[in-house]
Recover the amino acids of this structure.
């Protein structure tokens, strides 16, 4: 089969190679990969800034955690799936439910989906939603599940809640769609006014340009009659987290998801405790929540927002697009 291998850190070391089709173990599925989607994590792995010691020890491997495809054969003890089933990957291959088990993840250190065939464990493969193409479903495993796990599993979001979403990357576009579909009022920020028009079409009720209004937390307070929002999906990180605390309602939920600005921050602890903020560290989610989300997406009619679909040969261009930012998700079509 053809597969992309990350041989060393650096995009110049991502190479298209030929290798044998893997053989599934007793409880595993062999999947013909139809499509994968890229996440910030994939870029961070290639750049050698995401768990570099662990990743380096396992090079070379097939990158990319998010994949959708068709089961072509199953191991001798598999009961849940059969040949021909449409399946989607789940990044943490051992986190099924309950307490986190995040040691092993697809796309590094375990071989991921940027190959014509991949192995998925039966226990952590997810049935692809019937109303989605493989390209659409390939965008679910990290970006959508991270949002669902934050708002639904941890935050117990309710219709009528207010949610702040930062920027228009893969996670944030899903946050706008999921929160709106569940009846929440979404306030979205972006550096770009055209993108702000597009997020209104996805359900955002209010928008703020965070470049024109660097004190965006004051706008959020104005838009919520001084109360602040119940949920913030913090994808930016860095010192801006103090603005997020100001923009939150008392006992609001702060989901610490990303570090687009900085991994480190000096946090105003008094502001945090005075507001009794509920801080949730988020690391994607478990397979049970993914199953719940996949079922819900069929009912909520959420249509994934795909910026561009690249061909398998164009994987490097797809990564370069990720580096410069996208509106929603970047997909690579792997096989027909
Ligand atoms: N913890 C987890 O489980 C988890 C899961 C998924 C992702 N993440 C993390 O979440 C972050 C976002 O991931 P992603 O895949 O959505 O990234 P992405 O698609 O690359 O998002 C890029 C977008 O973020 C916005 N942005 C950048 N700097 C900003 C700032 N200072 N203020 C507001 N918005 C800003 C920009 O939107 P505009 O162009 O509209 O300004 C930009 O287009 C990353 O740090 C990623 O590692 C964590």
């Amino acid at each position: 089969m053809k597969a992309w291998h990350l041989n060393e850190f650096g995009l110049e070391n991502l190479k298209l190679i030929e290798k044998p089709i893997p053989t599934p173990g007793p409880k595993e599925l062999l999947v013909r990969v139809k499509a994968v989607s890229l996440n910030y994590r994939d870029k961070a792995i290639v750049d050698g800034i995401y768990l570099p010691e662990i990743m380096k020890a396992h090079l070379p491997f097939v990158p990319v955690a998010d994949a959708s495809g068709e089961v072509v054969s199953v191991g001798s003890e598999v009961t849940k799936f059969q040949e021909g089933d449409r399946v989607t990957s789940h990044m943490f291959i051992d986190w099924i439910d309950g307490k986190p088990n995040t040691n092993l993840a697809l796309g590094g250190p375990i071989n991921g989906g940027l190959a014509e065939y991949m192995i998925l464990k039966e226990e952590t493969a997810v049935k692809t939603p019937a109303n989605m193409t493989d390209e659409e479903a390939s965008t679910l495993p990290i970006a959508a599940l991270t949002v669902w796990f934050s708002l639904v599993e941890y935050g117990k979001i309710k219709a009528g809640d207010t949610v702040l979403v930062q920027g228009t990357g893969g996670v944030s576009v899903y946050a706008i769609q999921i929160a709106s579909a569940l009846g929440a009022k979404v306030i979205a920020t972006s550096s770009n006014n055209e993108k702000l028009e597009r997020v209104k079409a996805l359900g955002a009720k209010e928008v703020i340009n965070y470049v024109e209004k660097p004190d965006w937390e004051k706008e959020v307070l104005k838009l919520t009659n001084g109360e602040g929002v119940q949920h913030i999906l913090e994808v930016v990180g860095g010192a801006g987290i103090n603005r997020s605390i100001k923009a939150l309602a008392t006992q609001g939920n702060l989901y610490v998801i990303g570090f687009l600005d900085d991994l480190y921050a000096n946090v105003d602890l008094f502001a945090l405790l005075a507001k009794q903020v509920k801080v949730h560290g988020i690391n994607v989610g478990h397979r049970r929540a993914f199953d719940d989300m996949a079922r819900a997406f069929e009912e909520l009619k959420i249509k994934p927002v795909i910026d561009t679909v690249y061909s398998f040969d164009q994987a490097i261009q797809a990564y370069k697009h990720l580096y410069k930012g996208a509106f929603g998700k970047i997909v690579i079509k792997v096989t027909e």
In short: The first strand starts at residue 2 and ends at 6. The chain has two domains: 2-139+304-333, 144-281. The mean pLDDT is 97.
